[in-house]
Write a sequence for this structure.
């Protein structure tokens, strides 16, 4: 059976698992661009050690959850399996559930509201999802009530089920396959739908044969940025869909990247590389240790954090790539792939459960202060979101709120 002949329901399931994309990237032509050397001096050690305050445990201690509940999470969300909007926690799954951040009490629950593996993508205070009816609709929900507040569609009959890849206050960005006469999708489009009117603002067909797989997107100001497993990094104008630039940067299996003050920072194998958001020019890059590669980067409070597969943790200046410190860590501590920062503590959610969970790090030097694990033994990756003085971890069939001060 050919790729275009895979059943629609199977494709949607794969989309949730990240095997079908949640975004799009125009295929770039030409060779992979070599990284620019540079990015400051060798890492130096930090000084001092800050401890979590309030009810957080002492280093090495195990925090006591504020609350914990079972979930119907299917483990297929691409990046945002859990989100915090004001004082509401949204947990991906069927049914889709919202809980009070402080108490964990269920606020609302809706079954069959979206497709498997839905990411909790928020734009302008609205949660945007593809309809579970596979009818081509994209819907918007009020996170506080769970009620539909918005509905639109990319087209009546010519497009396969659109999938939301990013959202901001003005647009919802989707990718959808173009149905041919045999109901296959050899081509696809990326499009923007106005959050006000629900009308399609722009719609751009991607190059023939470009896959819909392995895509991550962010809408930042006037630019939509996305990467894909076909090795491309692409930037479009959010108002017109015009492709500002695209380049082939090399294959990466990571899910996330960072956009900060005019730079796109992406991990490509053993190098972390920063590109100018407007021109695509590489501004800096640096490498991790030999035989290792970087995981997903994040910029929090003006500092770039990233881990590597040798279980090391790095902090750097996102503007220059100059390293603040490199904690080489230990193979006894699983490396984080997703970060959050609350107060004076950095939190990381790990790729796998063994020797992992939610780590609390000292941002001054990257030392582990404590680790929380739910004890389930499931090897699924952890997901992380923060709100107020609480860090929320989602893992397998449990969602846990940890007070951090």
């Amino acid at each position: 059976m050919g790729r275009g002949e895979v059943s629609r329901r199977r494709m949607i399931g794969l989309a949730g698992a990240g095997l079908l994309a949640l975004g799009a990237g125009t295929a770039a032509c030409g060779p992979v661009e070599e990284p620019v050397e540079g990015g400051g001096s060798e890492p130096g050690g930090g000084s001092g050690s800050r401890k979590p305050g309030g009810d957080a445990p002492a280093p090495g201690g195990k925090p006591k959850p504020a609350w914990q509940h079972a979930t119907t999470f299917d483990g297929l969300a691409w990046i945002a399996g859990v989100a915090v909007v004001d004082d509401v926690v949204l947990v991906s799954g069927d049914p889709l559930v919202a809980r009070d951040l402080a108490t964990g009490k269920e606020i609302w629950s809706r079954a069959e509201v979206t497709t498997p593996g839905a990411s909790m993508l928020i734009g302008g205070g609205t949660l945007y999802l593809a309809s579970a009816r596979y009818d081509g609709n994209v819907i918007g929900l009020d996170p506080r009530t769970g009620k539909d507040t918005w509905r639109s569609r990319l087209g009546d009959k010519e497009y396969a089920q659109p999938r939301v890849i990013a959202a901001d206050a003005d647009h919802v960005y989707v990718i959808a396959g173009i149905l041919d006469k045999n109901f296959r999708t050899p081509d696809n489009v990326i499009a923007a739908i106005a959050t006000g009117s629900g009308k399609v603002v722009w719609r751009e067909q991607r190059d023939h044969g470009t896959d819909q797989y392995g895509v991550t997107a962010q809408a930042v100001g006037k630019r939509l940025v996305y990467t894909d497993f076909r090795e491309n990094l692409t930037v479009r104008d959010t108002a017109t869909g015009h492709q500002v630039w695209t380049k082939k940067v090399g294959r990466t299996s990571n899910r996330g990247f960072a956009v900060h003050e005019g730079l796109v920072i992406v991990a490509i194998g053993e190098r972390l590389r920063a590109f100018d958001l407007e021109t695509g020019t590489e501004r800096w890059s640096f490498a991790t240790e030999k035989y290792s590669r970087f995981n997903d980067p994040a910029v929090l409070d003006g500092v770039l954090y990233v881990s590597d597969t040798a279980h090391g943790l790095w902090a750097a200046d996102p503007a220059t790539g100059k390293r603040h410190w490199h904690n080489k860590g230990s193979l006894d501590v699983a490396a984080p792939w997703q970060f959050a920062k609350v107060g004076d503590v950095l939190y990381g959610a790990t790729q796998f459960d063994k020797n992992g969970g939610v780590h609390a790090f000292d941002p001054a030097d990257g030392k582990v202060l404590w680790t929380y694990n739910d004890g389930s033994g499931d090897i699924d990756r952890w997901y992380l979101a923060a709100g107020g003085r609480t860090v929320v971890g989602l893992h397998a069939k449990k969602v846990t709120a940890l007070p951090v001060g």
